[in-house]
Amino acid sequence: MPSDPPPPLKRALYLLAGVLATVAVTISTGTPSNPFRWVALIIGALILVLSTTGFVSAGKPRSKDRQRPRLRIRRTVVLAGLAVLITGTLVWAVGPRAAGWAEAAGVWWSGCDHPTMVRVLATPEGVESTRYLVEEYQRHTAGDHHGCPTARMYVYSEPPDEARERLLSGWPNVDGGAYPRPDLWLPDSTLHVSEALAGSTDSLVGVTTTVVASSPIVLAVPAGEAAREVDGARHGRTWSELLAMAGEHGWGIARPDPVASTVGRLATVALFTGESRPDKLAPLSRARAVEQQLTRGLDEGHYTLGTESSLLCQHRREGASPTAVIVAEQAMVRFNQGAALGGRCTSAGGALPEEQILTAFYPADTFTLDHPVVAIRWADTSTAQREATDAFTAWLRSPQGRAVLLTAGLRPQRTTISDPVSTRFGAVSGLGSTLKARALPARQTVEAVLAAQRQAARHSRVLLVLDASGSMGLAVPGAGATRFAVAAAGAQTALSYLGERDEFGLWVYPGSPGAVRPLVPIGPAGPAARRAAARALGTVRPAGPTPLDQAVKQAVRAVGTSDDTRGAAVVILTDGQDQDPSLTEGALRDEARDRRVRVFVVAVGAASCSRQGLADLADGTGGACFDAEPKGTDTVLEDLFRSLWGGP
């Protein structure tokens, strides 16, 4: 006679055990990667068998002829062992694929999850290579996640000095989002990191700095000029010896602006100090001789004052040039590869033929950019953002990330250096211990060198020419003033950046009669001259056409010629196209080049650097063209004068 079924409570306990077993096996999905997962797999499979057999047997009528206890135990043990063996084999063989299939099916069904937003701050000199690194990383994570990158990384640039000031102040959002608060910062050197993090704010709660690669500062010499060097040794000489060698062979040397460029700043420290006595500056006479040699190189090559990217971009646009340039090895390699450089050279081209490449000379007393990755933790940084920045840093240190760093022209740590950091692209890959890293200078040393450089540099002779045509009388929305009033205010502030040895003059156009109207004659820059400029600007009433070309022509002739002691420049602001052109930009550019006068253009309103040939006019003379909103004209003028002349 069949026995009664077990109580419902017993059946429920069997079901609960089965559920727990399923959870345990699920935890160990995939090849178990740690002891906990192995234990979960074995115990889960065992409980699953026991609970299943118990549940099934619980639902059957019990017979009076029960099996012997030992037989039941042996059967249970055998079944449990088989279950563990089969489950383990299936998990080992199929688990990883099944997990991948499940993830791929999820992507196909619902699309990619929203990637974590990470803001990456780079320097103007390194922004193109930073974009390359980020693109390769996003491609890597997408490949591992069925086409779905794990992070969306926004790359933008800001000069290190300005980034430092923002970090010290907690990164206030004063630009309406133009410079978002960074989660990662990739400066060229830890020199900036130590300066930026000297203070602390409530919003900045933590920083992790990881050095991932290096790039020495070199003298990049055109291959044809380098072939004339007598013994062919490309390392071992000091910076002073290389400058002397350049003078003997007639090479010009161009250096990036030490105010705007990390490379220019560290190169100037190396030129003005000795490795054995880094705190002792060269005599003023020696500093002036160095500055004269470097400014001649800039003038002869018609190079734009600015970063190493702008120097190399101009070098590429000029074609064959006998001028050597002071740059980081990475920038030289990318130039020889035909890679995007930034500025007006954002498009990649083909690699240069060997006879046109730049060849690196490695000074014995040079500095090396150590390329840190700085993960910044703010008070409201999310866990996902922290994990994303950590993952990017870890990838850069992995074999795959180091290979990408090498491809970008850097020297990664723990990596055999090869192409493209090779002879094919102007570098010497096997320097090893021959090129020892010079300790980065203290902040006090950098400040002392920059002050000495300003004193030793030639003075400036600047003619500022403002558009006073009828359209400059239009109101600027949100400014409560006209276009001309905003420009005039910016001009008055900008003139304060000229030093006591500098000269300036002030014109407006159109004149009545004539193309221009002189307001302040060219003469010494000082408080009296600036007060005269303020009074004269207050008398101007915008009216008439825009004789831009005639104004440029007359200004270039009036400002004089650059030489070793004086640099001549014309800064012209315009908001429209020349309505009665009698000269071409090519003719204006050639005349300015012959006189070694740099032309800087600020284009506002209807004017544009891209549409009117203004950029070709400016770049061709070693100047630059800046597009500006009418409301921001004053800021552009101030930044231009600050970067070019640096103040008294």
UniProtKB/TrEMBL annotation:
Pfam families (UniProt xref): SBP_bac_11 (PF13531), VWA_3 (PF13768)
Stretches that traverse the bilayer: 12-30, 36-56, 77-95
Classification via InterPro entries: VWF_A, vWFA_dom_sf
SMART domains cross-referenced by the UniProt entry: VWA
Domain VWFA stretches: 461-644
Keywords: Membrane, Transmembrane, Transmembrane helix
Keyword Transmembrane attached: yes
Domain of life: Bacteria
UniProt keyword Membrane present: yes
Matches recorded under PROSITE patterns: VWFA
Name the record gives this protein: VWA domain-containing protein
Organism: Phytohabitans houttuyneae
